[in-house]
Amino acid sequence: MFIQCSGRLYRTRALYAAGQLVGFSICYLVADEVTLMNIAVHPKHQGNGYGRVLFQDIIDFISDQHGQRQRTLFLEVRESNHAAIALYQRFGLSDIGRRPGYYPPIPPATANETAVVMRLGQGHA
């Protein structure tokens, strides 16, 4: 995925703490739309607010210097990822649909998992 998500249409950010890589984000840019392809924080660093820092960077990227959003942000998240969904909702994203069977199972699950599709539109922050 990392090799495919490189080039001028992609925005990749890494987050370091005390010289260690703790997380990253990858966004895909097309016209006035941004799709969050991946955002991750290393498991031993989760719960320290790094996900919020990475996501705020994306919100800043889609907004102008006055906080006015200039682009629409889209993302998919596993239906079982309640922490991520809560974070996205705190930033104002709305649930706009479902993609059944979108994600492969994470053991011990045996079935593909539904994706929640979310959006943050243009307008005031």
Automatic annotation (TrEMBL):
PANTHER family: ACETYLTRANSFERASE (PTHR43420), ACETYLTRANSFERASE YPEA (PTHR43420:SF44). This is Ribosomal-protein-alanine N-acetyltransferase. InterPro entries: Acyl_CoA_acyltransferase, GNAT_dom, YpeA/RimI_acetyltransf. Residues 1-123 form the N-acetyltransferase domain. Coiled coil: none annotated. Pfam families: Acetyltransf_1. It comes from the Bacteria. Keywords: Acyltransferase, Transferase. PROSITE patterns: GNAT.
